[in-house]
Structures are given as structure tokens and as C-alpha cells.
Amino acid sequence: MKVHFGKEPKYIRFDGNDIFVSFNSVYWIYCGTLDEKKKTLNASRKRVEEMKNKEKFEKEIVEIACDGNDVAVRKSTGKPIDCCDIECGECSLLGDKSCTELRREWAESKYIEKPVISKRDRAFLEYLNANINYIARNMDGSLYVYISKPYKIIDCWCSDEFEKSKSLRMVDIDLPMVKWSDDSPWLIEDLKKLEVVDSYE
């Protein structure tokens, strides 16, 4: 439902999927829902989750094939590359089977998105004290860093009883790959090894 106002609302509040607006701090008007946007995003995610590698990288595979070369897959990124442009040791299509068989298996396999890190988030990691080893996200979405490995409890992560939690609430970083649903905290060194991109899509 769309509601048009004669003047700008003073407050906008989100309650779950519902949107409320107000011109003062007392009287609130129900304005609509976020369900449709959420459904669209979920449908888009589902399409990506159900993709095979040959569908995700269709354009890249066609380009390599049109050049008359074989497809290789770079270990560090999981992305296809011209076989002539990579050393065998850097290709993930190595094993007991032939390259042709492994290439077919890779093409038919489900696409698994590899996490990447933005330049800004990557730069932030360099400023962390060398003693900081782990990072985790609490249920409320807040990020915390730890010296010793934390463990998950009801709604947050906890570390050694003598270690004070270090919140990153005041720092403008995203790190979307660090999720509350993670079974274990991220090692800072593992985050540093991720492919760096200009920004998250």
C-alpha cells in the first residue's frame, strides 16, 4: 500500500517487515510492508543458489571456447580461466581423472559463491592490533573482535572470562561474510586472504 503525504514525515520506523511513519513522536500511521522487496531479493538469491557453474560462468566459458582453448578453474577464485593463462598447480581441475572429466564435473556442479572482501573492509583489517585473531557477529548484527577463540551462546559470542569484548559498532565496516549463523568465528588471517573487490554487489 502506498501512502502520499503533503509534507515530509518526521519519523520512519521499521517493525519487522512493517513500515510506520509519523509527523511527531506520538501518532504513527501504518504505511506498508517490505514483503514484496524481500520476496524479490529471496527469489534472486534462490536463483543464484540453484545455478550450476556452467550457468553462472556461461559468458566466460563461451569466450574461452571461441578462442579455441580449454577451460581451467583458478583455485583462489573458483572462476574459469583460459588453460593457457594458468599453471597446472593453480588449477582446481587436478586429480585422478582427466582434465576433461573433471571439467565436466565442475561444469555440472552447483555454483558455490566464494566470499569476497571490499577494499575498505580489507584496509580496516590492517589497522587491527596483531594480537586480535578472531571476529564474529552477534545475533543483533554487531561485530566483535577477540584475542582468543570465542564460542557461541544464546544471542552472542563469548571468549575467555578475562578478555573484554571489543565492539566494532563505531566503525564503518560491512564484512557481510561474517554472519551470526556461522558455526565458528572468522580468523582475521582468513579474511585477509579473500579476493578483494571495489565494493559488495
Give the overall silhouette. elongated
N- and C-termini, Cα separation: 28 Å
Helix content: 25-40%
- Mean pLDDT rating: 80
Largest sheet: 4 strands, antiparallel
- Rg, Å, rounded: 23 Å
Going by helix content, strand content and strand pairing, the class is alpha+beta
Low-confidence stretches: 1-7
Instruction: Order the strands across the largest sheet as they lie in space.
Output: 11-8-7-12
Instruction: Encode the helix/strand succession as letters.
Output: EEEHHHEEHEHEEEEEEHE
Number of helical elements? 6
Hey, roughly how much beta strand do the residues contain? 15-25%
How many individual β-strands? 13
Summarize the structure in short.
The protein is an alpha+beta fold and 201 residues long. Helix content is 26%, strand content 21%. Strands 11-8-7-12 form a 4-stranded antiparallel sheet. A 3-stranded antiparallel sheet has the order 1-2-3, with no helix packed on it. It has a two-stranded antiparallel ribbon with strand order 4-5.
